[in-house]
Amino acid sequence: MSEVLRRIAGTAVLCGGLGLLLYLALVTAADEPITAPALGFVGAGVVAAQVFHLLRDAWHSGIMPERPGAGTSRDANPVWYWVSMLWYGACLIGVVALGLVCLLRIVGL
Questions:
Q1: Helix 78-107 vs helix 35-61: angle between axes, to the nearest 10 degrees?
Q2: What are the two backbone dihedrals, phi and then psi, of residue 75, each rounded to the nearest 5 degrees?
Q3: Same domain, 7 and 57
Q4: Per residue in 32-51, pLDDT tens?
Q5: Are 44 and 95 in contact (CB under 8 A)?
Q6: For residues 8 and 66, is the Cβ–Cβ distance under 8 A?
Q7: Same domain, 37 and 12
Q8: Could you give the C-alpha distances from 50 to 27, 46, 109, in angstroms and in order?
Q9: Are residue 45 and residue 91 in the same domain, yes or no?
Q10: Is residue 26 very low, low, confident or very high in pLDDT (cuts 50, 70, 90)?
């Protein structure tokens, strides 16, 4: 039992220290006016890349993944497949638009 408590305490110290460093970094960065749009741009870019790859893979394979191990086939259920493609496409457009708005705020337009 003592070993388990030591490991929990070590993990708590590690997580607490890293959390404090992250907090201090964000507090320092929050003083800059470009921080919020830059974080929005980076976040939108990451999400857009993930959604784009999902759509590209679904287009090439003909299977839209729903959950691990399951998916909707273009041949077996075409309506649900295309509705999913349209939904994720609309989400991709929205995320790209959000990224462009953040980029315009960064450059000052």
A1: 160
A2: -80, -40
A3: no
A4: 888 888 888 999 999 999 99
A5: yes
A6: no
A7: no
A8: 29, 6, 28
A9: yes
A10: confident
Please count the structural domains in the chain: 2
Q: State which residues form the domain around 18.
A: 1-31
**Domain shared by 44 and 95, yes or no:** yes
Can you tell me which residue has the tokens 């110290």? 13
Residue with tokens 């462009």: 100
102 plus 62 within the same structural domain: yes
Structure tokens at 92: 């991709």
Same domain? For 5 and 58 the reply is: no
Cβ proximity of 96 and 47 under 8 Å:
no
The confidence score (pLDDT) of residue 108 equals 82
* H or E element that contains 32: none
Mean of per-residue pLDDT scores for the chain: 89
Give the residue among 87, 101, 95 at the shortest CA–CA distance from 50. 95
Q: What is the pTM of this model?
A: 0.70
d(CA 67, CA 89): 18
Cβ atoms < 10 Å from Cβ of 105: 16
Same domain, 10 and 61: no
